[in-house]
Amino acid sequence: MSPSLSFSVNRSPKFPFQGEVKKHGNSLFTANPNHLKFSFLEKPVSTTLIPHAVATEIPTHWYNIIADLPIKPPPFLHPKTFAPLQPQDLSHLFPDELIKQEASNERFIVIPDDVIDVYRLWRPTPLIRAKRLEKLLDTPARIYYKYEGVSPAGSHKPNTAVPQVWYNAQQGVKNIVTETGAGQWGCSLAFASSLFGLNCEVWQVRASYDQKPYRKLMMQTWGAKVHPSPSNITESGRRILEMDPLSPGSLGIAISEAVEVAGLNEDTKYCLGSVLNHVLLHQTVIGEECIKQMEDLGETPDVIIGCTGGGSNFAGLCFPFIREKLKGKINPVIRAVEPTACPSLTKGVYAYDYGDTAQLTPLMKMHTLGHDFVPDPIHSGGLRYHGMAPLISHIYELGFMEAMAIPQIECFRGAIQFARSEGLIPAPEPTHAIAAAIREALHCKESGESKVILMAMCGHGHFDLPAYEKYLQGAMVDLSFSEDKMQASLANIPHLT
Predict the structure, then answer these.
(1) What is the spatial distance between Cα 96 and Cα 102, in angstroms, rounded to a whole number?
(2) Of 25, 24, 17, whose CA–CA distance to 110 is shortest?
(3) For residue range 410-423, what is the model confidence (pLDDT) as tens digits?
(4) Are the CB atoms for 339 and 433 separated by under 8 Å?
(5) Which residues are paired to 142 by β-bridges?
(6) In this structure, what DSSP letter does residue 316 have?
(7) Strand locations in 152-255, DSSP E?
């Protein structure tokens, strides 16, 4: 076995690799949660798990990009008064430490030892060069992908599910609720809850609940209770079903249901899988690892590509690279890719809007299609969100990244090329990044440029095979985006000066 392909899990990693390290205050909580500890060899045996994979270490800090932005993002607003949100306004939803992280301006925040202990189940994740895809495309470009599908839940989502559940456990919370689109976030939260002994209840968007039954079974296997959304359990869900008994649901609706339940029960907190600052913060372990992996290869990315729905996967890979770009060390093109049926960055407006359909969440300034917008039921359920993370929206407005939209047939065509050359079957969401990377690689073929393309491969598609079946049978269609529907939805957002 080749030592160059080993995965290091050293107990004293040296992350972050650049910048000043500051400890995030004093923890409010000192009790140790009653959960399983994972044992690892101090000097693990070298393995050849994945060809062309690059080893590294687990970060010890999350990176907060707000500290390095020349203009700070606009504040969240109270959903009723429209006044700037205060920390106590979020106390019914989140534990104290996550509220502190949401508002933090510190550059680096320490990852708790108990969280790193769980991360060691799958982190560090491999950076893999897609040599067979390069050969298939006959391109001079060098394509790399950071593969998050090795986590227990099969995606990047446990990177934030584990700390969110841990912080709730530290505060003595017993019950957590959430929404999920494709089911990857729901599975990740159910997994984390099973480790820390919390009860977990999930509202899964109806379109994905029907399309992806095995994600529901994964959640149930880890002990979660799962409902299709909209449901008859909540007032928010009943109101939607009265208007449209056959509603396919949306992330905005599912968020409303989960937030409503959290708000009505003092022993219950809400967890979110994307959009908010603390969620994007937790995902930066991806980019911190990847920077070191690229350095070890002597490579510098020219183009960095990730899919965007709420934005956590994209932010997790790209934010640490944007930090290096702001320092003048590198200058990659950073490109977000979204579905043409739900194009919040490329078609939406930058305005204050609610994060959910029932207007229960704070107002956030973000790129939005309007909180009433219900996208067509594309197979990329995790990208069917009416808005975009406020922090990504702000960075987009500052001009540090660009965005594009691709229809799902092209995405699945790229996924088939990827699967038949690299062997991995992608989830529908990262097929957008794959399609954009293929476009860039073919452009390099025409121009003769040998660019380094880095893309986020945020999860596997083992439970998304009905979507592949539709594509392979020629039954997949490119679902539409309705400008009229967006304008009708935007008419209902608050018009604030």
Answers:
(1) 10
(2) 24
(3) 999 999 999 999 99
(4) no
(5) 452
(6) H
(7) 175-180, 199-205, 225-229
